[in-house]
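A quick aside before the break. I want you to see a complete sequence-to-structure record at least once, exactly as it would be stored in a machine-readable document. Don't worry about memorizing anything.
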Amino acid sequence: MSRLSGEGRMRSASLLSGSLIYLVASVTTAALPFLLLPVLTSYMPPAEFGLLGVFQGLYTLFLALCGLSTAGAVVRQSYDVGREEIGVYIFNVLLILAATTTTLGLGLLLAGAPLGDWLQIPPGFMLAGLAAAAMVFTLNLLLGQYQVRRKPLAYGAFQIGHSALNIGLSLLFVVGLGWGAWGRVSGVMWAALAFGLLALVVLRLGGRLRARWSPQDIRGALRFGVPLMPHEMGTFFVTWFGVFVLNRMVSSEAVGLYLFAFQISMVLGVICDAFNKAYVPWLFELLKTGGAEGQRRIVKLTYGYFALMAVLTLIAFALARPVVALVFDPAYLPAAGLIGWLVLGQALGGCYLMTTNYLAYARRTELLSLVTVAGSVTNVALLLALIPILGIHGGVIAFVVARLVIFLLTWVLAQRVMPMPWRLKSKEV
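That is the input. The structure line, written in tokens, reads:
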């Protein structure tokens, strides 16, 4: 009995150490771009920085479209088949990536000029975003294999290495060569190309990339990925659609101020996401083995997490203006009033993560599409209604309300499929 308990403790310790490595890698990866922010804002006025906001929105859209969310299918398939079979599967997912990227690329070549005029962004920025998104998809295939094989150190090395090269090249192009916004875009693109190609080499050398056409694998990957597209697109509309509306209805300077405040708020968003990755294995284990008392422990921890989000939001409201005045160019001081509200939106996103895990545990993730569609419809409607009246503040309000809708709706659905003792009464368990 003690031997079994010892093995269980060893598994738990291994799980904890791996989760901590993923947490550190994710936080480090997020911290590097944040450290670049004072440099970028020193070399770019808000109007030019706004170009990066439109680029980031397009890049996020291309990330959702390239490969049609089939990277997750590779991770799922990896638990069911051996190395050779998964190598063939990855090859066929790459064919899906090639088809979607080529289609999008042709569309940009044919309609790039009028689309660029409408978005007020050079066509080269759009092509760079597409190339970067395709290569990041490839990198994510390798990172998924490292997760499946429980190699957190390799995962962290690739993730941090990609981010470090991204930042290093951006500094070279923006500061050293004076390329402005195009320098930052170039840093994103070339870092993605370098690590995307390196990922292909590593997959090939590791026997996890085998060139063999398999219509069955393509159909299977699409059956997994395509139903996730409403969720992916909904996430894009909630997070980034406001950038395009601000750009059209207000100005690129407004986009620059919004992006600046949003990137600062993303510090909390990334920490929440990294914590969730470390938290999920513990949560699932306790849901499986902890019984009623385990559920009560989870609920108490969740309420503590909610309280922490509230405290961090209040701190953001209090410190935003003095920190911006101290660290950043004075041209960005008008954005200080937006930061606290956007941090509130990120905090609500963190609360959403704490509730959506129950849908994953109950294997009811198809409900996420309903949630994100509701959130995106709310966001788009509020953007179109409020930005003409309130300008940039209308975009912030829309983001916060959409995040609130997503959180509350997810919590309600999670309670229906996975009842938890939220009133902390044992008889409700």
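Two observations worth writing down. The chain has 15 helices and no strands. Residues 2-43 form the longest helix (42 residues). We'll return to this after the break.
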